[in-house]
Design goal:
Elements lengths: L5 H4 L15 E7 L10 E7 L9 E3 L8 H6 L2 H7 L2 E6 L7 H18 L18 H12 L6
Parallel strand pairs: 3-4
Antiparallel strand pairs: 1-2, 2-4
């Protein structure tokens, strides 16, 4: 029997480029690829917790080489609900060879879009060293940061 990804069997609504409407629960939206790559759309998988507030923290979860962005987002749902953290997990297929390169691309593109739209950009890029592709180590470091232990 062939294995099927959960994302392939869940009926998805048709995504419209740059139509961002994050609702409570899990979902996704589509943004353009950025400067010089506008035709390369990026799907962002999200989870907005019931306890979300406008000043809630946002956790950007960048998938590994398997590009399993929905399962990366889903791994954070319990913490999202517990701490009121908005989860965003981009599927940036052509925006970098590895997680750090894709995350840096997404961070810089988001910053550029915020500037064009005259929005505040209150994000910072934190690089967690010595984790490689171990999402568990990344999760432990992220959890420490999100919950007040700033040393990584």
């Amino acid at each position: 029997m062939a294995l099927v990804n959960k994302i392939d069997i869940i009926k998805q609504r048709k995504l419209v480029l740059n139509e961002i409407n994050i609702k409570e629960g899990s979902g996704s939206f589509l943004i353009e690829g950025g400067k010089g790559k506008k035709e390369k759309a990026i799907t962002i998988y999200d989870h907005k917790p019931k306890r979300y507030k406008p000043d809630s923290k946002i956790l950007l979860v960048v998938s590994g080489s398997g590009r399993n962005r929905d399962s990366y987002r889903d791994a954070w749902i319990a913490s999202s609900e517990k701490y009121g953290v908005l989860i965003l997990s981009p599927f940036a297929d052509k925006q970098g060879v590895h997680r750090l390169e894709r995350g840096t691309y997404f961070f810089n593109t988001s910053k550029e879009i915020a500037k064009k739209l005259d929005f505040d950009f209150n994000c910072k890029l934190i690089i967690v060293h010595n984790t490689g592709h171990d999402h568990r180590k990344m999760g432990v470091a992220s959890s420490k940061y999100l919950h007040g232990k700033k040393e990584l």
